[in-house]
Amino acid sequence: MAKVAFIGLGVMGYPMAGFLKTKGGHDVTVYNRTTAKAEKWAAEYGGHFAQTPQQAAEGCDFVLACVGNDDDLRAVTTGENGAFHGLKTGAIFIDHTTASAEVARELYTAAKSKGCGFVDAPVSGGQAGAENGVLTVMCGGDQADFDKAKPVIDCFAKFAGLMGEAGAGQLTKMVNQICIAGLVQGLSEAIHFAKKADLDVPKVIAAIKGGAAQSWQMENRWETMNAGKFDYGFAVDWMRKDLGICLKTANDTGARLPVTALVDQFYAEVQAMGGNRWDTSSLIARLENADKK
After folding, report:
1. Contact (CB, 8 A) for 122 and 170
2. Separation between Cα atoms, residue 253 and residue 96, nearest integer Å
3. Active site residue 173
4. Is 138 helix (H, G, I), strand (E, B) or coil?
5. How does pLDDT run across 153-191, given as a tens digit for each residue?
6. How far apart are CA 292 and CA 274, in angstroms?
7. How far apart are CA 187 and CA 73, in angstroms?
8. Which of 21, 37, 150, 173 is flagged as catalytic?
């Protein structure tokens, strides 16, 4: 058992922190900007809650975070009353936020200057993956820090691997999001085409899902996409945030992402339709919305 803090109790962080308690048996303290949510978590899981990230981190062996973006991450780490001000020497900070590689490297350096470890560890698997404890975790940092962190991460992960030095976890998550963008657009067009061609969509999917066209998106989203239901996963607003990071990094590195840039604009159209909180499979809605104009 270790003394652990978890910062950020959103749809991902709340169950992740829960697994640290129920599966890991750790002594867990949580922090959330909305204190009522932290109080609810503590009552549900029998842990503790703190009033600031610094207070949550004090005396902990591991501090984990899952917040919104680079600015949120800086605020809860190096900002006023941030967790880094409470880290003890030798503690490991594990960041599950999907953020930039730049902020990961920045916080890695800041942690090392305090005699602490830092692992950037963005996750994939969505809300369902978090609630079922089967996330994929892509990590960046030092091997020794990762080796210490992995048993903690394993409380809510089906896979956790070290991709390289600091920032490599975030870069790997970008690769993941680039793949998803293209896959969802392709599946959207395929289902839309099948409907227009008067095909039986369930029969079509049954015929192709075992072959080269198969994907996680097809397996898990074709039915809800076909039904026009988009309340089952990662929100469009967050996907656009992630794709923005991908496109900026591509510009910095000289990578070319023409399809990703196009799909990002398609998501902007979904936002304009009021789909900010729809899940990413809602790309099909812009195709079908065009028919109504």
Report:
1. yes
2. 23
3. yes
4. strand
5. 999 999 999 999 999 999 999 999 999 999 999 999 999
6. 16
7. 34
8. 173
